[in-house]
Amino acid sequence: MGTIKRMRVKMMLLTSKMIKDKAKELGIDDIGIGNIERFDNAPPLMSVKNYFPGAKSVIAIVMRIPRGSYRGIEEGTHWHNYTFYSYNRLNTTIRPRLTYELSRFIEDFGWEAVPHYPGVPERNPAMEPVAPGKLPPNIVTSIRLVAAGTGVGEIGHSKVFLNKKFGPRLRLGLIFTDAKLKPDPILETGTICSHCGACVRKCPGNAVPPVNDKLSKVEIDYGEKKVYYGNVQMGRCTLTHHGFNNEISPFLKKSFPNMEFEVKNSNMSEEEAYRLCYPMAQAQWGATFNDNNNKSVIEYYDYVMKHVGYFAVCGAKGCIRACMDSLENSKRITNTFKNPFYRKKSWVLSNKPEEIAEGINPFRNEWLDKNYPGIRENEEKNI
Ligand code: SF4
Ligand code: SF4
Domain extents for the chain? Predict the structure, then answer.
């Protein structure tokens, strides 16, 4: 009897403050808590309640992206640090470990905790349900929409999630629990985002709409509050993010020196962009003329995919780098630095070819000219 009583007392003792203290002890950078009613309007295929009908609270955790992980891309000299520490491994290893630890802590008090591994809702195809009347088996929430409902930050104009400490330099994790917890207030749109437009001006994909474009706003209704952000053209962003934009990718330019693809005016959908970028990043083609016999069409993308399991090429030039600089300078965020992020003018490549490489196979020609000068003489007129 005494044991049961003690367990009941322990279950009741789990509070928002205890979870926040534990999160701090674990090294989680920030945390917000929302009540489940805020997500009543969520579409069924993205609803927390359809994962966990008994959920009473949603917890969002923030892990910062080190500012230094952008340095190599900003210099134009090193890319995969960012993909590793601030994208793929931060999302798949570093942050999930802490989500797991915090879930364990909650469950030690007798409350179920669902650690959520973020997915891409718009990529999940509908599938047959496991039983009649059920929803498809692959529903997934939008992590930033749920996080905004916990008050741990707001969705900035650029659609990137912003936090009071780190601005856009963060990745998010979620836990759903049946513990009823005191919620944090939802932030008003504009609490962190100044609508300065730096993300619009510096986005190399022309994906972020002008801040004063009233028609390009997405509104989200949490019941007690509505918030809004810019309707980003995700096809252009995906093409640029995954390096199909000459202006930000020396790697694409090396493999397709004659290509002049206008991402900035593209109307490609996000899915079309994925279908182009991912297969191309891993594509092989029989005859290449580099020194290590690598047959990858875009050598660096193939390498970085194999090396770190993902490839983030834009380095969020507008929506994170320019945004964090703006928020640091205007002191709208607290995690600031002794030196400014931008120390010189940022580089940008031309979308146009420097010179049109002529002939049927310029790669072969270049290789032969280097290794067998003169051997191609009179050749092309005979092909
Ligand atoms: S740069 Fe950042 S703060 Fe400025 S409008 Fe874009 S999201 Fe808002
Ligand atoms: S990732 Fe690059 S292309 Fe996409 S919105 Fe950010 S700055 Fe623009």
Answer: 10-352
